[in-house]
Structure to design on (957 residues):
């Protein structure tokens, strides 16, 4: 347990979307904290609410959605209560975000240097030359060779991996305390993915930046994160230190996720899958949201389970957690 | 790049040729060419002489060859009415039409872009709804009627602007231009506005659609995630992306605008090419009609080509790809 | 939002596609109002001889002494010129209603003919594919890249004036829109299973085309058709205004407006103004109906 205060503390965050068809509770009571220099892996399928959580923290949830409850404590301030002006001050500055598809996140008609310099100038009153120098430095930090040439180029002239490095460089321009990365390597191929993960890890260790890494890919989380939170249908169903959770998952969903990773299955065995589909967030069944797909479901699951500390340092939202020894992998 | 250019020029050439064939057929082959090419009040002897001179007794394809050769030398016949080379008449009036068309385009951009931007950024506000409703009016209302109304309101009742004609002109590059004088500008205001109405509606709709589409793009969200001010996000990130398609369409429409100026010029008695052609059609001054059609086609093609080139300059994705990175 | 089918639940009321279409159309009060206005206009035009106080084409009924009278004056024949008279002594109201007849007939007529020609060519292009398709589409592109007014001017310059020539010009200018629209839809529909089924049944080509393919291409065609009618009416009015359209003896709205042009500057606005308003209302109402039709019939815009 680290003694210093966590960089980010999310308490009972609720983000709802008020659509004509009804209220979609995309994030429904999520709590976690991220310590200084630590990487939190936020894992879940699409529709689990992990991306919306990220957007809620940085304040970019667009109508018809909004943060409907809870608090987001960042260095002592509640982000959910700040004005747009104050949030803008933090964005790109103290809190930065990296998106999934770098082709779509970099504006195709503007040069790289324009997009980097404007970020510097948005938060610091420096000259254009100094801003350019800073841009050059950060490009170097993420391992982009000959940064001067690259600065003058347009996004489409880069490969996917390069573009994502540029996006990371932009995130680092003001040495933020927190970086939220929303599936940044999903659109890249595996080798590039590995490189970027390694660099990011190194950066966090050296600069003390906290990170939330949102992904559906457990193998990414395994190598990178310190802590992990598994989300399902808008709620966290399991939380803990990454090594322990992946080794001895408590919640049946986490258990199913790990079991369905191809590398974990023996050759010749049928791939294990979690039966059924994620429920529609408009029509959540009563009780545990995972009930309809859970092999361990029982009558007790009709009442909604609370997130409880089942083992020291390990929380799970289940009345039938896997406390027994894991199956032979 | 050069391959592309050459290919486009060849295409253009083909179109001009096709046009010349169509015009030739329309004028020389349909109806009685003797009737239509020779001034109606020529007597028998003059007629025979003219038939010989014009080669109307030759087989059709030979006539076409003659027509083409003459055309390439710049001789497109003499006007019956003015008794001057048709081409010269057209060229004399081109500046008037051109400045009207450009004025209309400028109006369309200055008025249409901000309105469209607003309608796109705040689609549900009252003002936006008014803008969109007016844009329907913009392309429903027949231009000539709006012109009449403009004259009625601003010239007859309010007396602010002159009703017809071109006013004083200044000389630039050996041609007469209205925009160089204040009086000329006053005369130009209403016709240019009238001509621009259709395009304003077009620009508003395009801009609004572009803005709504662009706002949903990830790079806009990313720009906000960087903490950029809303002004910068709108006017740099969004605007530059919609500017390209809007300007392209407006540019391509320029040819259409020039063609459409016939109506505005008639209403406002603006002495441009358009008014000339209408008058010529009414009195069957065929050489002028031929000259006008050929000129218009040439201008059209030139404009299309320039717009295409400009587009590839504006959009970095197109520009650099053609150079083969 | 996807339309989830709840198994086991039977619909309590039979909702045919047509009924749903009508109710969706009626969602826009504006479009509904426009439709009513347009129907009124059409009825006025059809029943013109019975409702107008005067037949403006019958020279015997005109009294030139009654020329250029202001709206509301009572004329020699004893009835009120509600909208004034023009320089020939024609009652503007009658002139407008008769003018509507011409404008609507020429506009809708040319649109219909153009639709028949264009839709057939479009279907042919989509169905036959290959060279036929490219040839037809080249023609369409050529036609569409030419400004309409110019093409119409050219055609009229070659053919001369007159109602039939105007119709020909309008048809030649409009057919390409229909062809392109129909070809687009037909290309998509052509790959659908019911066409394959019809072909498997060895139905003759024209039957497949007209009884199976065409009905499904109708929605966008209807939308384009409606907008085109408005355009045709506007174009005819413009041409007539320029003196290149219908003959003076049977003026359409455009020609009426042209007649009044010279009197505008001396303050006798009504000769141009009221026909203009009539034209306006006609065109705008058709466009509003067309706009709503497009929103209703376009599945992509459905939320």
């Amino acid at each position: 347990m680290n003694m210093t205060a966590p960089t980010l503390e999310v308490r009972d965050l609720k983000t709802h979307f008020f659509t004509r068809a009804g209220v979609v509770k995309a994030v429904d009571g999520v709590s976690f904290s991220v310590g200084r220099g630590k990487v939190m892996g936020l894992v879940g399928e699409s529709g689990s609410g992990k991306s919306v959580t990220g957007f809620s923290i940085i304040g970019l949830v667009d109508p018809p959605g909004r943060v409907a409850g809870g608090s987001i404590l960042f260095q002592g301030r509640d982000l959910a209560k700040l004005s747009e002006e104050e949030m803008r001050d933090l964005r790109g500055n103290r809190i930065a975000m990296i998106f999934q598809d770098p082709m779509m996140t970099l504006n195709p008609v503007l040069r790289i240097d324009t997009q980097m310099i404007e970020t510097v100038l948005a938060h610091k009153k420096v000259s254009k030359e100094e801003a350019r120098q800073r841009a050059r430095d950060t490009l170097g930090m993420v391992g982009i060779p000959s940064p001067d040439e690259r600065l003058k180029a347009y996004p489409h002239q880069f490969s996917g991996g390069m573009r994502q490095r540029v996006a990371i460089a932009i995130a680092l321009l003001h040495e933020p305390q927190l970086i939220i990365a929303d599936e940044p390597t999903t659109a890249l191929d595996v080798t590039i993915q590995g490189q970027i993960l390694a660099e990011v890890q190194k950066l966090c260790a050296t600069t003390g930046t906290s990170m939330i890494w949102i992904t559906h890919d457990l193998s990414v989380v395994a190598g990178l994160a310190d802590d992990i939170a598994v989300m399902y249908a808008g709620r966290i169903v399991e939380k803990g230190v990454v090594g322990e959770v992946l080794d001895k998952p408590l919640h049946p969903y986490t258990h199913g996720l790990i079991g369905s990773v191809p590398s974990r299955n023996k050759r010749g065995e049928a791939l294990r899958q979690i039966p059924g589909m994620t429920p529609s967030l408009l029509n959540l069944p009563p009780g545990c949201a995972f009930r309809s797909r859970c092999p361990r479901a029982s009558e007790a699951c009709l009442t909604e389970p609370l997130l409880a500390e089942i083992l020291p340092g390990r929380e799970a939202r289940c009345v039938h957690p896997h406390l027994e020894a894991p199956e032979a992998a | 790049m050069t391959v592309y250019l050459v290919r486009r020029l060849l295409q253009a050439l083909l179109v001009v040729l096709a046009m010349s064939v169509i015009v030739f057929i329309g004028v020389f082959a349909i109806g009685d060419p003797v009737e239509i090419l020779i001034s109606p009040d020529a007597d028998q002897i003059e007629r025979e002489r003219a038939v010989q001179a014009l080669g109307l007794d030759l087989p059709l394809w030979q006539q076409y060859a003659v027509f083409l050769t003459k055309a390439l030398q710049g001789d497109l016949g003499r006007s019956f009415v003015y008794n001057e080379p048709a081409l010269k008449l057209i060229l004399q009036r081109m500046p008037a039409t051109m400045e009207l068309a450009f004025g209309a385009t400028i109006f369309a951009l200055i008025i249409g872009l901000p309105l469209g931007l607003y309608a796109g950024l705040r689609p549900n506000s009252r003002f936006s709804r008014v803008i969109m409703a007016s844009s329907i009016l913009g392309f429903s209302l027949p231009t000539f009627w709006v012109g009449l109304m403009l004259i009625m309101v601003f010239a007859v009742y309010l007396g602010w602007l002159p009703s017809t004609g071109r006013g004083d002109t200044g000389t630039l590059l050996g041609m007469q231009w209205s925009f160089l004088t204040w009086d000329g500008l006053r005369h130009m205001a209403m016709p240019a506005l009238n001509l621009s109405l259709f395009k304003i509606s077009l620009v508003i709709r395009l801009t609004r659609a572009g803005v709504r589409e662009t706002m949903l793009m990830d790079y806009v969200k990313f720009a906000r995630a960087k903490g950029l001010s809303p002004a910068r996000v709108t006017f740099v990130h969004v605007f530059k992306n919609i500017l390209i398609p809007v300007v392209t369409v407006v540019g391509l429409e320029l040819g259409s605008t020039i063609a459409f100026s016939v109506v505005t010029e008639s209403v406002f008695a603006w002495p441009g090419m358009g008014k000339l052609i209408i008058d010529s059609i009414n009195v069957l001054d065929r050489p002028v009609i031929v000259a006008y059609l050929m000129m218009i086609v040439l201008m059209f093609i030139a404009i299309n080509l320039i717009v295409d080139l400009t587009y590839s300059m504006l959009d970095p994705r197109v520009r650099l790809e053609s150079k083969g990175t | 939002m996807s339309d989830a089918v709840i198994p086991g639940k039977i619909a309590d009321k039979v909702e045919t596609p047509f009924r749903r279409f009508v109710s969706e159309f009626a969602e826009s009060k504006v479009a509904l109002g426009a439709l009513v206005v347009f129907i009124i206009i059409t009825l006025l035009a059809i029943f013109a001889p019975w409702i107008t106080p005067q037949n403006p084409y019958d020279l015997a009924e005109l009294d030139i002494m009654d020329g250029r009278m202001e709206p509301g004056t009572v004329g020699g024949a004893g009835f009120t010129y509600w909208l004034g008279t023009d320089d020939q002594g024609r009652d503007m109201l009658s002139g407008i209603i008769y003018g509507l007849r011409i404008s609507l007939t020429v506009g809708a007529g040319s649109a219909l003919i153009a639709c028949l020609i264009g839709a057939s060519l479009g279907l042919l292009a989509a169905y036959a594919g290959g060279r036929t398709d490219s040839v037809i589409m080249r023609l369409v592109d050529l036609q569409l890249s030419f400004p309409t007014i110019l093409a119409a001017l050219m055609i009229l310059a070659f053919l001369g004036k007159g109602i039939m020539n105007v119709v020909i010009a309008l048809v030649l200018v409009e057919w390409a829109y229909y062809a392109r629209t129909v070809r687009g839809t037909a290309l998509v529909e052509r790959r659908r299973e019911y066409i394959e089924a019809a072909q498997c049944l060895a139905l003759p080509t024209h039957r497949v085309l007209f009884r199976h393919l065409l009905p499904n291409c109708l929605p966008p065609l209807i939308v384009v058709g409606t907008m085109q009618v408005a355009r045709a009416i506007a174009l005819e009015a413009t041409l007539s205004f320029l003196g290149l359209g219908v003959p003076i003896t049977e003026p359409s709205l455009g020609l009426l407006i042209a007649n009044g042009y010279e009197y505008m500057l001396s303050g006798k606005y009504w000769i141009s103004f009221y026909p203009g308003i009539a034209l306006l209302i006609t065109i705008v109402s058709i466009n509003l109906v067309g706009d709503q039709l497009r929103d209703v019939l376009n599945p992509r815009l459905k939320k």
